[in-house]
Amino acid sequence: MIAEENEAEARASRWADGDAGEHLEELVVDALPSLLTAEAAASALEIELVGPHLRLQGLVNTGYFRRVSDFLNHKEGLIDLQAATILRRNGDATKVRTPNIWVSPDEVTLIGQNTDPWADQPHTELWVEKVRKTLIVVTPGHTLTGDVYITREAQLAVYVESNDPQWVPMTDVRTRSLADRRIISRYPFALLNRRHIVAATELQPGMIPGRTVL
Description:
This protein has 5 helices and 10 strands. The chain has a 10-stranded antiparallel β-sheet with strand order 4-3-2-1-5-9-8-7-6-10. The chain has helices at residues 2-16, 20-25, 38-42, 68-73, 156-161, and strands at 45-50, 55-60, 79-87, 93-103, 110-113, 130-138, 142-151, 167-177, 184-193, 199-202. The model is unreliable at 1-16 (pLDDT under 50). 18% of the residues lie in helices and 37% in strands. The chain is α+β, with helices and mostly antiparallel strands and 214 residues long. The protein folds into 2 domains: 2-111, SH3 type barrels; 130-202, SH3 type barrels (Roll), CATH 2.30.30.
């Protein structure tokens, strides 16, 4: 009886802390098959979705858009994540996998990719020179640092205060969980949901970029 009560308290604690991955893993009673196929991987991009209470990894089909940022900033409705795996708060994969899961973009703080989609693209006649600004951002579930790029004539304050686009491209992103400061994640490229920005400031002289987050 005591053991059952302790297990119930542990489950309640994990759910209260917002780690939905561990909660959902309790629903798995048998091994689940792998869902990732060569055909699916060839026609979609791999991304990771991070929110205050849920973290997932899977594929998204961007259609005729070459970049996830263009796809999301022109999309309405839920994000259809294919061949998805539910992750724990620290990024470890759980046993929970599903062919499709539909996620509300309003509940997603960050969408990460392991590669920068702009890194290998050649400059064109429409290429506009931009300057890098390093931001420190606080969201409902994380603190993070990362670089944004604005035109030389633009003001950072106006860029941050703007309502559009919803998804802000950032490079060299490092996040720290507010629920567990030991959990730090890094993404070469990520899209930040500006509607989740609680506070933001530019990295100031004397602060060390890239080493840590708040």
